[in-house]
Amino acid sequence: MSSTSARPASSAPEVTTGLALMFLSVMFSPLIDIFAKLAVVTVPSAEITAGRFLVQALCMLPIVLWRRSFTDFSWRQSLFHAIRGFVITVSMISFVTTLKYMAVADAIAIFFIEPIIVTILGGIFLEETIGWRRYTACGVGFFGAMLIIQPSFEEVGYIALLPVVSALCVAIFVLMTRVLSHREDPWSMQFQMGIWGLLFCAFLLFVGEGRGSDLFDPVMPAGSAWFYVAGVGAMAAIAGILGVYAFRAAPASTLAPLQYFEIVSATIFAWLVFGDFPDAIKWLGITIIMASGFYILWRERRFASKPVSDTSEVTLAP
After folding, report:
1. pLDDT digits (tens, 9 = 90+) for 257-293
2. Per-residue pLDDT tens over the stretch 189-208
3. What are phi and psi of 180, to 5 degrees?
């Protein structure tokens, strides 16, 4: 999805670089969830999320200092990053909680209605023209998600809806990141997101201490749990910075189809680590979600290939 502000055309080498970076990003991203599922057995969701943000911020700090990116900080930018930190915190806690009860591949497949939500939010908040064909594709995609949610709902109840909450939050996060990534240093963006996310998690853990909650009551990790929590943060830092640089190098409409490979890589990793593999009905739902997402992207790229008289503004095809 493109914003209404023009973006300089990317050269062929830049697009190739962007595609390579995005491919690496979607290969690392499922490892965040693998480590999180291993950790959530003994560690509360908010504490795993805090660990992710702490490791991510520590990884970014030396680079931010070396690049002197902190000189670009402003209160106005901090407000945007606080919002990004809040929505990604809600998303992460929701998704990690899901992983305690659901298979990784199932949760990620439901989560991948996120590009569909981005399309709908773009039409509502960015006043982009979204016609009946793409709205229909969005509806079909949600139907595919229901094929996965329905049996999961019977097994785990309302927990099966948490990936939808996570997808909504990430859709908001993506819209903000796409706007900010063209005027801010990527390392600074990752660092500020980590700091704000850590602050929100610290507040939740402070309030939840002693309440016995699986989400918010902090515990002292034992043994391998330390490694799992650190792994969540390390994989998030790597995947996040690869993704930001990918979006800087190539148009979002070019990179978006590669994000669906995360379902495939997640399924492979989950099968290797946990022995989980989606059944036929869930594969049908996954296929429908991917098909609807590809159709939406095809409509956008088809319109983008047409000449426009005013290059300062781009309106998406219906």
Report:
1. 677 778 778 888 888 898 887 778 878 887 887 787 7
2. 878 888 999 999 999 999 99
3. -75, -30
Residue with tokens 């997640």: 266
Tokens of 67: 């690049």
DSSP assignments along 259-280, one per residue: HTHHHHHHHHHHHHHH-----H
- Nearest-angstrom CA–CA distance, 201 and 179: 25
Contacts of 132 (CB under 8 A, 6+ apart): 318
For residue 24, the one-letter residue type is: L
Q: What are phi and psi of 88, to 5 degrees?
A: -75, -25
| Burial class of residue 179 (count of CB atoms within 10 Å of its CB; 0-12, 13-18, 19+) | middle
Tokens 């999961």 label which residue? 152
Query: Distance (Å, rounded) from C-alpha 86 to C-alpha 264?
Result: 29
Tokens of 168: 């909504």
